[in-house]
Design goal:
With 301 residues, the chain is mainly alpha-helical. It contains 14 helices and 6 strands. The longest helix is centred in the middle third of the chain and has 21 residues.
């Protein structure tokens, strides 16, 4: 986020901060997965698949769909003398222990079927990852519950927005841009698998009746700006609007799952999930986590 915002708005100190954070962030198991994806891509023989087809293939693999668990959300230590209010702790991690620990090779084999090179249409590839990042977040619904967005999946949507910024940056080579786009596509599969591989239910979200009639983009942005959370909602709304813009010229392509008529409906559903008390401390009440599991929806009407 810092790198994207810093580059987009030419805020060099913010950009430097983001690069510093990236340089010191522990990424061993992410790197293991990305290297496995690259190895699989190098063995690819024949035409590349679309990114959404990789998600569909992953849903057919029971090992992948069962690699994560809602138990990763239950790592809570009861109140004690040392910690009177209790505390969260992380002994097991959904990506390190679940995705990489159990299905790294299987998921990388599927992810490696999609790729981007410097010779490809990078504008189209950028639009594809933006479109699909929004689709997997917007479609991660569980009828009959009201629509909600997954905290982790929306970070994929929010971050993909800045690939448009990277694409326009002259100091980044075409090969580097292609590598970043490809890696992001592979990481979207990784992110989604950790959340329990939620099956797409986009029609449930599209069938949501907006609480505010005839609520267009201007009113959506006004509502989002007034929403008193920590910024996740407005970032999501901005990502949805940007996705609509960059996807428009590719609306007729089947691999672009989010069509033009869907983006505003997805934004309305997002704002309608917002409450007067969206969070306390770092706890979010309007956003769920681990959308692929029934337990994540227990408190959602």
């Amino acid at each position: 986020m810092h790198i994207g915002l810093g580059l987009e708005f030419k805020q060099l100190f913010v950009l430097a901060e983001g690069l510093a954070e990236a340089a010191v962030h522990h990424d061993q198991y992410y790197t293991d997965y990305i290297e496995a994806c690259s190895a699989e891509a190098s063995k690819r023989d024949g035409p590349k698949q679309s990114l959404i087809s990789c998600f569909k293939d992953a849903l057919l693999d029971d090992k992948i769909t069962n690699c994560s668990s809602f138990d990763y959300c239950r790592q809570y230590e009861a109140p004690s003398e040392q910690f009177p209010e209790g505390r969260w702790f992380v002994k097991r991690e959904p990506y390190r222990d679940g995705v990489v620990g159990l299905v790294k090779n299987e998921l990388a084999h599927i992810a490696g079927k999609w790729g981007v090179t410097e010779h490809d249409d990078l504008e189209r590839a950028t639009a594809e990852i933006i479109n699909i990042s929004i689709y997997i977040a917007a479609s991660a619904q569980r009828p009959p519950h009201e629509p909600r967005y997954d905290f982790f999946l929306i970070h994929g949507s929010n971050a993909c927005l800045w690939h448009s910024v990277f694409l326009a940056e002259a100091s980044i080579t075409r090969a580097q841009k292609a590598h970043m786009i490809e890696t992001t596509g592979h990481m979207l599969l990784f992110l989604w698998a950790g959340m329990g591989c939620p099956r797409p239910n986009i029609d449930w979200l599209l069938g949501h009746a907006p609480k505010v009639a005839d609520c267009g983009w201007d009113q959506i942005f006004e509502r989002a700006c007034l929403h008193e959370d920590d910024g996740h909602m407005i970032k999501l709304i901005r990502a949805l609007k940007h996705g609509e813009s960059v996807s428009s010229k590719y609306d007729g392509l089947p691999e672009f799952m989010m069509k033009q008529h869907m983006f505003l409906k997805a934004a309305n559903a997002a704002m309608d999930s917002a409450s007067a008390t969206p969070m306390v401390s770092v706890q979010h009440f309007d956003i769920i986590r681990f959308a692929g599991f029934e337990e994540a929806w227990e408190k959602v009407p």
